[in-house]
Amino acid sequence: MQIYFSIICVLTDDNECENATQPCGEHANCTNTVGSYFCMCAPGFKSSNGQQTFVPNDGTSCVDVDECSNEGTVACGDHAKCENVDGGFNCSCKEGYQPSTGKLQFKPNDGTSCQENPEAKCVLYKDCVTEHVNKTLAEIRRLKTPLEMLQEINRNTLGPLLPVDVISYIEALSYSSLNTMQYSVPDNEALRNTTINVLVSTVNNFLQKDKITIWEELPVDNQRQSLTKLLHTAEQATLLMSQNFKRTTQLDANASDIALKIFAFDSHHMKHIHPHVYTEGDYIKISPRKKEEYQPNGTVAVVFLRYSNIGSLLSSPKNRTSKDSSEQRETVSSSVIAVAISSNPPTLYELEKITFTLKYTKTADKDIKCAFWNYSADTMNGNWATEGCELTHSNSTHISCKCNHLTHFAVLMSSGGSVGVSNYNILTRITQLGIIISLICLSMCIFTFWFFSEIQSTRTTIHKNLCCSLFLAELIFLIGINMNNNKLICSITAGLLHYFLLAAFAWMCIEGIHLYLIVVGVIYNKGFLHKNFYVFGYISPAVVVGISAALGYKYYGTTEV
């Protein structure tokens, strides 16, 4: 018997693309073949060796293709720009244009085009602004209650805003908060508290740090007018809602860039309640006039508001014209605080004084003052004023003030050509050190030219007088520059500085004349010339100073004594 055996071998391909994790590396696709496999870069990427296919571990990687670098291959369309991303690119509209489909990012040939945004420059044209304001007011008037209006404005101002939106929604906020609340203040305490919180949140939407750049796009007049209306609206609307509290109340409502505190009480609690606020380093307190008797059944509402980011908007414009370029620029160097009081009857709670301490938000300057925002409720135009306010104390971090009226308060810093206190002290020490070194060197020169007879000549005589003039000018400057507490001494110091500096320039001129005479070889009488040198070097500066002092003596010295 014969037995036969046979062996059948079945071969199957090993799919390397499935058995390994990313065998081709990042941004590459693996393609399996019989007995092997190869790699290709994903769309939007290309191989580093320039070949369409490659094998793993040969040093080839897939790098991003910058489609935006070749404008000929990418056509995003007119008024659009290309933005490269890993594995592709996106198109977006340039500033001042908006996509027709509403998509911020789009692809070429998907039906999206960039159209001019009519509202982007609307703020420059009065008719356009008026139309936009009327449209916004019409939308708000459809709502019935102040809370609904505030909620609608709050929703519409949460995101990015255009300059014209700032103007329009502040007008709408003023209408919803002042016009409607006069007749429909919520009686329900919970509803009233909700309305106050929504008001604070809405005002905060306009004043957040990322919105400040939008304000700066407005013309200065529109900027200040709209901001003043916003501050006025926040203050008056809060007062309106605070008058209907049925019991003694203290309410806080805070947002990222605004803080509100309300005190509401009746005449029976006036002696025991002392309205004050301490927040983020700022302190403010009001002191009413003392009375022997208080009227019964009266009510009082006191509102405190603190704004942390509006100082730059209320500072003097940076782009001054040549007409006022010599004036000092006033910069708000603290937060802005507001205090408002409403009492029924009006004579129940009368202000005696308000005291506040504010923390500097910028390096304190030598010239600081307490100020208030003085504006007209009719035109909403305002400016900083100091009447009725006085500085009581200041240090390197805080300033304390006292005022006899209510409004919005802040610390102003005049920064025309001055520097901060710390920088001022450093520069003063550097100047003093430089002058002392110069005086030492000048004294050595004077000693050499005066006592070494072997080097005596016309040239050394000129050098000696020049060094003496410079030495005296610098010595007077070093000693007298800070003696400005006396008007007479300050004026004498200024006159002497004027004289000796002119004398130094005169002797420099003489040195040039002498050098010319030597070069051209002119023969001259040394004795006669020396006498004229002294006349020109010392008498002529005295004549100039004398005439200047006679015609404008008040300009010698300083007015800040």
From TrEMBL:
Residues 247-419 form the GAIN-B domain. SUPFAM superfamilies: EGF/Laminin. The chain crosses the membrane at residues 433-453, 465-484, 496-523, 535-556. Its main location: membrane. Residues 427-561 form the G-protein coupled receptors family 2 profile domain. Residues 13-51, 64-103 form the EGF-like domain. Signal peptide: none annotated. GO terms for molecular function: calcium ion binding; G protein-coupled receptor activity. Keywords: Cell membrane, Disulfide bond, EGF-like domain, Membrane, Transmembrane, Transmembrane helix. It is a multi-pass membrane protein. The keyword Transferase does not apply. It is found in: Cell membrane. GO terms for biological process: adenylate cyclase-activating G protein-coupled receptor signaling pathway; cell surface receptor signaling pathway. GO terms for cellular component: plasma membrane. The keyword Membrane applies. Pfam families: 7tm_2 (PF00002), EGF_CA (PF07645), GAIN (PF16489), GPS (PF01825). InterPro entries: AGRL2-4_GAIN_subdom_A, EGF, EGF-like_Ca-bd_dom, EGF-type_Asp/Asn_hydroxyl_site, EGF_Ca-bd_CS, GAIN_B, GAIN_dom_sf, GPCR_2-like_7TM. This is EGF, latrophilin seven transmembrane domain-containing protein 1. It comes from Bambusicola thoracicus.
